[in-house]
Amino acid sequence: MRRELIYMDAKSSKFWTIELQGSGHTVTYGRIGSAGQTSSKSFASEEAARKDFDKLVKEKLSKGYVEKAGQETTGDELPLVAFTCINHRDEISSNLGTFIGMRVVDYDPEKPARSDVVYRVRSTWEEPELPLKSFLASEAAAQARGLVIGAWQVDDSSVDSSQVVSTLARAAGRLGKLAALHLGDIVGEECEISWINQCDLTPLLQAFPNLQLLRARGGEGLALSEPRHARLRGLALEAGGLDVSVIRSVCQADFPELEYLELWLGTSDYGATATVADLQPLLSGRLFPKLKYLGLRNSELADELAGVLVNSPVVERIETLDLSLGVLTDEGGQSLLKLSSPTLKKLNLHYNYFSPEVSRQLKALPFAVDVTRPANMEEEEEWRFVAVGE
Questions:
Q1: Does residue 355 share a domain with residue 209?
Q2: Biggest alpha carbon distance in the chain?
Q3: Judgement on whether residues 233 and 307 belong to the same structural domain of the protein
Q4: How far apart are CA 353 and CA 333, in angstroms?
Q5: Shared domain check, 138 and 94
Q6: How far apart are CA 199 and CA 223, in angstroms?
């Protein structure tokens, strides 16, 4: 018996394989693309070996690994696991190390173009627009499968992303292979997430008909005035607070191929204005027939969402439900204990305010459940905060 798992996030892309043979098993693990390292272990009986095999697989699935077999793609499709970026709270404070499973490097016009990395382009103090224009004129742009845009104005957080968006849209012909775009790889030291000024992202949807993943960070000024795209498979909007207008645009979107939807709802202190009622079109299950991953993350409404989601039709057909980074308490945890779905494989509850007893009960559910929490997470019952606000 053999299981092959893979994991991708903002820092790494890894594989983990285990093969059961009689009274022992062999594990091979490492960075995707490398030969990896191998270790073998023997047991007193075949039953003991199988028990340890099942235990290790369950542990990996609870940490975010997914079956490689379930991520096979055809043609130019990206594997769905590649759409995930921030898995855990401690990944938010640093710039991306990987994107769509490839290493992210800062674009340097003095170095030869590479096709085995994803370039990050960000402004300089002297000439804010020059780095992007230089990249788009290079061979690196023609080869780019993914692109990460960092800070677009070093010295003024009031400047929005509209100039970057229009520049990218006009240069779409130079980005013929582009499948994934991250707009706003900006960390707190550069600009707090709720100070990042975005714009209407519609020009990107219109200019790149083959785009599979669009990820944007920052909710201020964010809009999707014409949310239509024939091939988009993943949409991720990270914010300290999403305005209800954005939620309503998503709930009216025409994305027939959408498999992955990640929304950081945030907190009213930093611009969140939606209620659970505003999410009802999404929870009804009538939107996005191919949806496999639903992330309603970083939300002060987490307990209320949990109470509604357990009876929502959308849970009956997705594979991953992600309520991480919010303020889930035992109230929401007790609701989630009633969760039943023929398709659900993973429940992500990382960064939470559960008691040890409720955490134990959640881990006993018949699918992988992540109830991990950062070591330095605040535990005061009176004050609970989403993972990312300001």
A1: yes
A2: 67
A3: yes
A4: 9
A5: yes
A6: 6
User: Cβ distance 68 to 15 under 8 Å?
Assistant: yes
Asked whether residue 149 falls in the same domain as residue 203, the answer is yes
- The Cα 286–Cα 256 span in angstroms is 11
**Total number of domains constituting the chain:** 2
- Distance CA(147)–CA(143), nearest Å, equals 10
What CA–CA distance (Å, rounded) separates 283 from 233?
A: 18
Residues 280 and 248 in one domain: yes
Report pLDDT for 256.
98
If you search the block for the tokens 């800062």, which residue do you land on?
106
The per-residue pLDDT for 68 is: 80
366 and 243, same domain (yes or no): yes
Q: Are residues 97 and 56 in the same domain?
A: no
Q: What is the pLDDT of residue 376?
A: 67
Residue 112 buriedness (CB in 10 A; 0-12 / 13-18 / 19+): exposed
Give the side-chain half-sphere CA count within 13 A for 253. 31
What are the mean pLDDT values of the chain's consecutive 10-residue runs (390 residues total)?
86 89 93 89 92 90 78 76 88 91 93 93 78 94 96 83 96 96 94 94 98 97 97 97 97 98 96 96 95 97 96 95 95 96 94 93 94 73 80
Tell me if the pTM is above 0.70: yes
204 domain residue, yes or no: yes
